[in-house]
Amino acid sequence: MFRRVLRRKSAALLSAFLLVFTSAVVAEETTGKPGSPGATTTISGKQLPPPPPKFGGVIKEGALQSTPWWPSRVVPPKGAPNILLIMTDDAGFGVPSTFGGVIPTPTMDQIAENGLRYNRIMSTALCSPTRAALITGRNHHSVGFGVIAEQATGFPGYDSIIGADNATIGRILRDNGYATSWFGKNHNTPTYQASQVGPFNQWPTGLGFDYFYGFVGGDANQWGPNLFRNTTQIYPWKGHEGSLKLDRSNPNAEIWPVTGKEPTWNLITAMADDAIDWVSRIHQTDPDQPIFVHYVPGASHAPHHPKKEWVEKIQAMHLFDDGYEKLRERIFENQKKLGVIPKDLKLTPWPKEVLKPWDELSDKEKKLFIRQVEVFAAYVAYNDHEIGRVIQAFEDLGKLDNTLIIYINGDNGTSAEGGPDGTFNEVAFFNSVLPPVDVQMKYYEAWGTEFAYNHMSAGWSWAFDTPFDWFKQNASRLGGVNQNMVVSWPKGIKAKGGLREQFMHVIDVTPTLLEVTGIPAPEYVDGIKQKPIEGTSFAYTFDAKNAKAPSRHKTQYFEMMGQWALYHDGWLLSTKVNRAPWQAFEAANADPLNNQVFQLYDLSKSWNQSEDIAAQHPDKVKEMRKMFVDEAKKYQVFPLNASVAARVAAARPSLTAGRTELVYTRPMTGVPQGDAPFLLNTSYTLTAEITVPKGGAEGMIATSGGRFAGWGFYLLDGKPVFNWNLLNLEWVKWEAPQALTPGKHTIEFDFKYDGLGLGTIKFNSFAGVGKGGTGTLKVDGKVVAQKRMEKTIPIILQWDESFDIGSDTITGIDDSDYLPPFPLTAEFNKLTIKIDRPQLSPEDIKKLEEGMKKAALGVQ
């Protein structure tokens, strides 16, 4: 843990403060003799990259008679700070100790003590949208991220494309002379551009960040992620895997034992190591170049994967033994003592109709739930510790005094996507499967290890959003959007330990960074006219004189999957929550703009939405509803869509979209799910042509997904096998009775699907998905195995795994059969995949339309 953070004081504080807070474009500053190799210059910043300067030397026919001249190197304005922009994942207001939580976050605590706390910084209620808003300074719909990338639809506000007219803060700072980097989660690349085919203009390196080390997508296995350095897939954990084993030999055991040593590699530590290395490398190469680090770890998004030592530290504290209601009350009292919430605030009631009270749980449920939350808390504490190591690196290099640290707790409220009981496999949630407690108890010892993709009970999530209610995804409740953050900058912020209560939004971060660096928002980037920055700088709050100043961010809309709200000058109009996050498969509200129960709050009196006064102020409700429509039109929010799972399964661009036959003639690995053959809710045939050498062969022919959901087509002890992993709950296997003889063979797996397919989702119905079918395995034209599979995965495979041919990367789909990489030892000649998607008949369409009408009439 860093010990000396923020101790030094700047003697020239006032002059530096005045310099960086000049928001007007200043004259260009130069150093060195113009035209010399060491000359530098700032730029106006109106056009990026800046136009090439006119050659200032002399060119004659011979070099001896000519005068060389070099363009000046672009640098930021003098005194521009280093920037460390940190944001954690899926963490509500009551998570960190800095804001009354019981989970120790000493790094965040120390920044707050030496800087400022902020208790009204808003998110969008969901991952990708908040992140897009953060790095662009524009509302999430304005930059194509009305929802996460995996739910993208073909409308400007929802297509998951950050347009070229919305340059990121990384691009702006880089072109003005900063070294820029991005570590951790990248959830802002379209799913259909995440493969090695590219294009890479929507990857961090294409969005203005010189260096990227992290994963692409919503979450990742922290013990073995689908990891990239820039745009190259890497496997740094190889050789550090450990020897853990989950013994599932007794299916009737209450708890499956785990033996062996855990891996020595974990991404939370590895990305801190890589960030420290990158910062040190930049410093040693050019100590004067300002650095911008965008540090966004996967913690504390599921899967919660902390190291065992951190779980043991939390267990020893016995923080959660008395349950989630008591935890909520304890956090609430802590918040009052710290003064981060109003002293007279009332806590909203516990939602007994949604979440079972603790004293009604069985002993087994209590035991499981405590294990779930202890692993989550360990993950939070572990992550905060590693963030501290990165900050210590700035201190060790002598850079901390002029480093602006913004540490945002959560990109949205705490996640309830594990459902009321939690889940050992988050992939199951995204397929509307919530395993019962008895099944989850089997993974009790494996919780937090590589054998679980774990998420905690929503009861804990409700508590961790204290003093607010509801969760991530719920954009109309402050539990979904009201984050907190701490900010420090020894050279630029005189106030220490103060609280700031002005209303802010993550779109305000980019204009704040531009103001403190003295860099203007560009008018053109790559010749493209830029959209205006939509956020409002909060740099004014750094001055102690403005501690109680009115917020300069007056109006802000919120919308997420049909739930919406509008903030205006202290008032908040909200739609009543009509769907819990785990109810993703329920019929969607057909008219989310109007078919709502409206709630109204005066946040100056009802700071946490505890007192609805809509009935007393109908004119205010009407006025703010109209304001929301105006904002929605302005920022590309329309068309409103209340569906959740349907959008995950909806058609979107893909390298395989519309293709009914795919042919592969060479082994390959690492194709992400967005560009992989999609074999859900359809009939299909896989035909592999291989040559078996003398002595036989084994290994993976083709696979998609991994330990928590997927399929594999392989040779096991020489026998052809097709195996479906149904969410790590059941494996359906077709296996030939005999090993293949040496020589050429054709192996075919054919699946005839029973359902109507994804077409039903267009009609707000899941009637055609997840149905069963009959699989047939053939060798050289002869049927060797046939069986029926009663159900299939309806929506999505494991997203942080890939489609591989010839071997298996990261995790396998059946640990009892093989362990990756399981290379194919036969000669791979050809793989052909044919897909035959169900087509709806006119009668099918008529029935579905009638059902849709009935569902719409029944929506409350």
UniProtKB/TrEMBL annotation:
PROSITE patterns for this protein: SULFATASE_1 (PS00523)
Segments forming domain Sulfatase N-terminal: 81-519
Region entry Disordered, spans: 30-52
Superkingdom of the source species: Bacteria
Key word Disulfide bond present: no
Keyword vocabulary terms for this entry: Calcium, Hydrolase, Metal-binding, Signal
Keyword Repeat included in the entry's annotation: no
Coiled-coil portions: none
SUPFAM superfamilies in UniProt: Alkaline phosphatase-like (SSF53649)
Signal peptide bounds: 1-27
GO molecular function, one term: metal ion binding
E.C. numbers: 3.1.6.1
Enzyme class: hydrolase
Protein family per UniProt: Belongs to the sulfatase family.
Protein name per its UniProtKB record: Arylsulfatase
Gene source species: Microbulbifer aggregans
Lineage: Bacteria, Pseudomonadati, Pseudomonadota, Gammaproteobacteria, Cellvibrionales
